[in-house]
Amino acid sequence: MKRRFRCLWCSKVFTEPDEVFGSRRRSSYRFREYLGKEALHQTVRRCVAEEIGRRLRAREVTEPPEFIGLDEFSVSGRRLYHTAICNLVKGEVMEVVEGQGQKEVGEYLDSLAEPGRVKGVVMDMHEAFPP
């Protein structure tokens, strides 16, 4: 709900700033309520993860780095996970794979041009990746 004010000097009517939509833009309460409900269902995070995956697949594949980092993240509130595979030498994300288990990550690592070039993998000690 935007509050309206009247300037004491010039008598012009103005509304308070809206940090979400910016100045001179309007949004309905119903639209904001819809966005809030969708955000609760993690739709936004899932869409971002899918877009990141598409962009990573479109990049040119280079030789694998010597050190890789793995970190899983929740896409749908502890129900659906993805794993980010990072190039620790360059500090960039190489791939995002669906799932958080050894099988999904192993399939990606096996698809690398020279998997033997990888000397080390850094990850948290999660039960999905046994020692």
Provide the fold topology.
Elements: E1 4-6, E2 13-15, H1 29-40, H2 43-58, E3 67-74, E4 81-87, E5 92-98, H3 102-110, E6 120-123
Parallel strand pairs: 3-6
Antiparallel strand pairs: 1-2, 3-4, 4-5
Number of domains: 1
State which percent range the strand residues make up: 15-25%
The major beta sheet can be summarized as: 4 strands, mixed
- Please estimate the helix content: 25-40%
How many helical stretches? 3
- State the total count of DSSP E strands: 6
Cα Rg: 23 Å
Average pLDDT across residues?
76
Q: Give the spatial strand order of the biggest sheet.
A: 5-4-3-6
Rough outline? elongated
Unreliable residue stretches: none
How far is the first residue's CA from the last residue's CA? Answer: 54 Å
Order of helices and strands: EEHHEEEHE
Structural class of the secondary structure composition?
alpha+beta
Keyphrases for this structure?
131 residues; alpha+beta; two-stranded antiparallel ribbon; 28% helix
What does this entry show, briefly?
By secondary structure, the chain is an alpha+beta fold. The longest helix has 16 residues, at 43-58. It contains 3 helices and 6 strands, in the order ββααβββαβ.
